[in-house]
Amino acid sequence: MIDSNDVYISHITALWVWALLSQRGQRATSFETVPPPCFEGGLRSSNVQAARATLQEFLEVVDIPGEIDVLVQSNHQRHIVRNARTHTWKAQMPLGSYRRICDNVLVCCPEFCLMQMSTSLSPVELALLTCALAGNYFPADCSKGFIETRGILNLMSLERFLSDVPSRTMGIRRCGKALSYAFEGPRSPMESATALLLTMGRRDGGYHLPRPTLNHRINLGRTARQISGTDHYVIDFYWPQIRFGLEYNGIEYHTNVSRDLRRELALSEEGITIQALTIEQVLDQAQLRSVVRRIAELHGLRLHRPPAGCPQARYNLINALFPWDPDLRKFRQPRYAIPQEFCLEA
C-alpha cells in the first residue's frame, strides 16, 4: 500500500543499505516488492528526516554520514527538499525496482541501483561495482578496505532485470556491458580488478584470456586429504579446462609457507597446477605478461601483437582498476564506498 509519507532511498545510500543488510544474510528478495513511486502530495523535508531516523534504527547505526539519496517527483522538488541528495528518474521504472524495508522507508533494489549509478561511473568503475554486488565484499573506508558480505545480487538476477527494461532506457547499455565483464563471487576488490584486467578485450586494455571461475571449490581425494589435513580447497582464479589456478597473495592471506606448500602438494596430487600472484606482479607489466603467456599457452592460444593504441588503453585500464594515491600511499576508494562511521566492521 502506497503512503504519502513514504521516502524512496536510491543511489549510494541504497547501496550502503543492501551491503550492510547482506552482512546479516538479508537480500533484497527478503523484503516486500512495492509498485513504482507515485509521489502523492510530494516529498517533504520532514519525511526525509523521519526516514533517516527510522533507517538508522533499523540498521543499528549511530548516524548516517552526510545527506541521504532520495528519489523525488520533479526537478522542482529537488530544490525544496532539504537534508538530502535528491534525484529524479524520468523513464518508466522496471517492476520490482523498490523494496519496503521498514515503515515509510523504501529502498531501490540493487539491480536498479546499478542503473542509477551507471550515469556517473565509467564503464570500468561500473564493472567493478557489479563485481562487488555479485561478490562477497563491498568497498568500505576501514582498515581492510572492504566489508565482507554474503552476496547482494547474482548476475543471473541482474540479467533478468535488465532484460525487462526497455532498450532505450538511460543506463541500460552501460549496465549490459558491465554485466558482460563482471564476475560472480569475488572476495575482494583486488580479485575483481585482477580478473577484469586478465579477461577484458585488448582494445579495452585487457589481456583477453579465457574467463576463470573465481573462488572455485576443489574437493580432495583421499591422498590429497592426508597431505593437506582438509577435505577441500578454494582456488582464487581457476581454469577448469587446463586444471590451472592462480592464488592471489594478498597481505592478510597465504602467508604461512608450510601451509602453502601442503596446499600446492595436495592440489598437485589432484592434477592441478597452482601459481602464486602478487599485487606487485599484477602492476608490473613484464611480470604479468609472463603469467598471461603461460595461461595462454596452456589453453593452446597465441599472444598476438597488441592492436594500435593498446599500450595507452592498458595504462588507462590499470589506472582505473588500481587507482593508487601517492599522497595517501594506498588505493583510492570508489565514491560509493561505505564510510568508516557507517561500517558494522571497521
UniProtKB/TrEMBL annotation:
Superkingdom as given in the UniProt entry: Bacteria
Designated name of the protein: DUF559 domain-containing protein
Organism lineage: Bacteria, Bacillati, Actinomycetota, Coriobacteriia, Coriobacteriales
